[in-house]
């Protein structure tokens, strides 16, 4: 496979190969082998047309851990303001010897567009409301690390499903690996077509919480809301926010995930975000090794296709 555009495209076997490669990188890091050399002499470009902290920093660090050179591009301050197109901008950066392009864009399909026009391998770092494959991979890796499996688990994605690329990628990945997926949120934030993806839909968190192994608390994406937010923030926090009272209704070993950034006091209270069930910072750490695994496996494919020994 040349690109990582979404988990819709990846098979169960491919997902497991990435997860297992990430486990190997984690094992190596635990014995102090943090600096590896397979991407030495290559260049990874981070093209971010939307804000990011976790994805941007971890892709940059992942590339450095594999000894690639990196270039960082932000749309603000670039020649986009002079009218240069998205594809021309990417092709210009590619012409500086870039082999791997990590791209985040507000428009669904932007990474696929680059895949059509560039020779570089494209990694989707989040495209609008469509997919965020490496986020879902790190979520799934974190769940697998905790439970030792994905098959048979019940994972509930809570909140703003309508605007969530994280939800879509999680659904594709979790379903392929055998989890039961519940999407739970207000009717206004759950698109009707989501049930076509084979998920259970609920509008009442208190109805599903006791049979859930993992809760993935999605951020309310205020920046993608049109008009007024409904329900209100206060209503949302009351009906769907994760707090101590709700944790007490959950399984004893329930795992609390959040892709971040989190709105403390809205989808999660600080005591739960920082409490014993939360693996939010563990997800961030796992994001680094997942992105290393994605870059490394694409590099193996690229060198094989060019006839270069890996
Ligand atoms: N979860 C996530 O994609 O975070 P960033 O927007 O900070 O990269």
Automatic annotation (TrEMBL):
The entry's keywords: Pyrimidine biosynthesis, Transferase
Pfam family, one: OTCace_N
Span of domain Aspartate/ornithine carbamoyltransferase Asp/Orn-binding: 151-298
One example of a Gene Ontology biological process annotation: 'de novo' UMP biosynthetic process
GO cellular component: cytosol
Molecular functions (GO terms): amino acid binding; aspartate carbamoyltransferase activity
Amino acids binding L-aspartate: 82, 165, 219
EC number: 2.1.3.2
Protein name: Aspartate carbamoyltransferase
Organism: Gimesia aquarii
Gene name as annotated: pyrB
């Amino acid at each position: 496979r040349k690109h990582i555009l979404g988990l819709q495209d990846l098979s169960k076997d491919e997902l497991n190969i990435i997860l297992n490669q990430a486990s190997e990188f984690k094992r190596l890091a635990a014995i102090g082998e943090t600096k590896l050399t397979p991407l030495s002499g290559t260049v990874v470009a981070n093209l971010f047309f939307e804000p990011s902290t976790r994805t941007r920093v971890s892709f940059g660090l992942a590339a450095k851990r594999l000894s690639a050179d990196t270039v960082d591009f932000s749309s603000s301050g670039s020649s986009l303001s002079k009218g240069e197109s998205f594809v021309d901008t990417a092709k210009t950066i590619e012409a500086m010897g870039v082999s791997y392009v990590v791209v985040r864009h507000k428009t669904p399909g932007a990474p696929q567009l680059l895949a059509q026009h560039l020779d570089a391998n494209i990694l989707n770092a989040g495209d609008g409301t469509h997919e965020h494959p490496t986020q879902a991979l790190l979520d799934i890796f974190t769940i697998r690390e905790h439970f030792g499996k994905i098959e048979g688990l019940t994972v509930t994605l809570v909140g703003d499903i309508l605007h969530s690329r994280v939800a879509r990628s999680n659904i594709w990945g979790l379903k392929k690996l055998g989890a039961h997926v519940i999407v739970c949120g207000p009717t206004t934030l759950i698109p009707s077509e989501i049930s076509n993806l084979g998920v259970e839909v609920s509008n009442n968190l208190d109805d599903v919480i006791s049979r859930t192994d993992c809760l993935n608390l999605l951020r309310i994406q205020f920046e993608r809301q049109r008009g007024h937010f409904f329900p209100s923030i206060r209503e949302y926090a009351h009906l769907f926010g994760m707090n101590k009272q709700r944790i007490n209704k959950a399984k004893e070993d329930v795992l609390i995930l959040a892709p971040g950034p989190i709105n403390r006091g809205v989808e999660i209270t600080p005591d739960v975000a920082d409490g014993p069930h939360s693996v939010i910072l563990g997800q961030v750490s796992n994001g680094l090794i997942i992105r290393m695994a994605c870059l490394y496996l694409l590099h193996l494919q690229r060198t094989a296709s060019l006839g270069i020994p890996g």
